[in-house]
C-alpha cells in the first residue's frame, strides 16, 4: 500500500486518555521556530534599513553597522531553515480538488461552519497558500538580496540590476510580512493550533474537526499507539 502524502513519518494517534495526535516531531518544531525567529529579526532589521524614521530599530542589533552586517546573514539562515522544512512538507502541501471546494466555501471557513466543509488532509488550502507563498518570496528575497549584498557581490552586479533588485527585495519583503501576519493570526484564531508547534501534538477532537481526512488515514494505516 502506498503511503499517503498527508501521512508523514512520526504522525500517530495516542489513545490516551485523553486522545492526542502527533503532528510535528521535535526537529520540525525546532526548525519552525528558527524560521519564525529569523523572519522576525529580518522584519525588524529590514525596516530599520528601509526608512530613516525606523533607524532607531538598529539599536536592537547594536547599531547601524551591525544591522547592515547581520541582516543578510540572518537571511541565509532563514533560507536554509525554511527549505529544510520545505523538503519535509512539500508533498503534503500540494493542491488538490478538495482545496478548490474549501476555497469556494470560504464564507463557511470564516464563519466557523466546518461541518459544511469537505474533509481535510494534513493541511487545508489556506495553509498550503501560506506555505507556497513563503517558499516563493524567500527564493525571491534571497536572490535579490545576494545582488545587493555589497560586501560579496557588489562589484559583480551592474548598477541597474542592483536598483531593480532593491525594488524587488523591498516589495517582496512587504508581501512576506503580510503572509507572516496572516499565518500568526490564523494560528491564534484556530484554537488549539499553537500546541502543534509547542508540544508537537493536538487533541483528537481538534484533529477530527479540522483535519478529519488526515486523522482517518492515520487510523486506517494503524498509526495508533496502545492505550496508556
Helix fraction? 55-70%
- Number of helical segments? 10
The secondary structure category is: mainly alpha
Shape: elongated
Write a brief structural summary.
With 228 residues, the protein is mainly α. Helix content is 63%, strand content 5%.
Highlighted features:
mainly alpha; 228 residues; Fumarate Reductase Cytochrome B subunit; 4-stranded mixed β-sheet
Give a description of the structure:
The protein is mostly helical. 63% of the residues lie in helices and 5% in strands. Strands 3-2-1-4 form a 4-stranded mixed sheet. Helix 1 packs antiparallel against helix 2 and helix 5 runs antiparallel to helix 7. The protein contains 10 helices and 4 strands. It has one domain: Up-down Bundle (Fumarate Reductase Cytochrome B subunit), CATH 1.20.950.20. The model has no long low-confidence stretch (mean pLDDT 91). The two termini are 29 Å apart.
Task: Produce the secondary structure layout.
Elements lengths: L11 E3 L5 E3 L3 H25 L13 H26 L7 H8 L1 H6 L13 H23 L2 H4 L5 H31 L4 H5 L2 E3 H7 L1 H9 L3 E2 L3
Parallel strand pairs: 1-4
Antiparallel strand pairs: 1-2, 2-3
Amino acid at each position: 500500500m502506498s503511503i499517503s502524502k498527508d501521512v508523514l513519518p512520526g504522525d500517530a494517534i495516542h489513545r490516551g486518555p485523553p486522545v492526542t495526535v502527533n503532528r510535528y516531531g521535535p526537529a520540525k518544531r525546532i526548525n519552525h521556530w528558527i524560521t519564525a525567529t529569523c523572519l522576525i529579526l529580518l522584519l525588524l532589521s529590514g525596516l530599520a534599513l528601509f526608512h530613516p524614521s525606523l533607524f532607531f530599530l538598529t539599536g536592537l542589533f547594536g547599531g547601524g553597522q551591525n544591522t547592515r552586517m547581520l541582516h543578510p546573514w540572518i537571511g541565509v539562515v532563514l533560507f536554509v531553515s525554511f527549505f529544510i522544512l520545505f523538503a519535509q512538507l512539500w508533498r503534503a502541501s500540494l493542491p488538490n480538488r478538495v482545496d478548490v471546494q474549501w476555497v469556494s466555501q470560504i464564507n463557511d471557513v470564516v464563519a466557523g461552519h466546518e461541518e459544511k466543509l469537505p474533509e481535510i488532509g494534513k493541511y487545508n488550502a489556506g495553509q498550503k497558500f501560506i506555505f507556497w507563498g513563503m517558499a516563493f518570496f524567500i527564493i525571491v528575497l534571497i536572490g535579490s538580496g545576494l545582488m545587493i549584498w555589497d560586501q560579496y557581490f557588489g562589484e559583480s552586479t551592474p548598477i541597474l540590476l542592483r536598483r531593480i533588485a532593491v525594488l524587488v527585495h523591498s516589495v517582496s519583503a512587504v508581501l512576506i510580512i503580510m503572509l507572516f501576519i496572516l499565518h500568526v493570526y490564523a494560528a491564534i484564531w484556530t484554537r488549539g493550533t499553537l500546541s502543534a508547534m509547542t508540544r508537537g501534538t493536538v487533541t483528537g477532537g481538534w484533529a477530527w474537526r479540522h483535519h478529519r481526512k488526515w486523522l482517518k488515514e492515520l487510523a486506517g494505516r494503524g498509526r495508533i499507539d496502545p492505550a496508556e
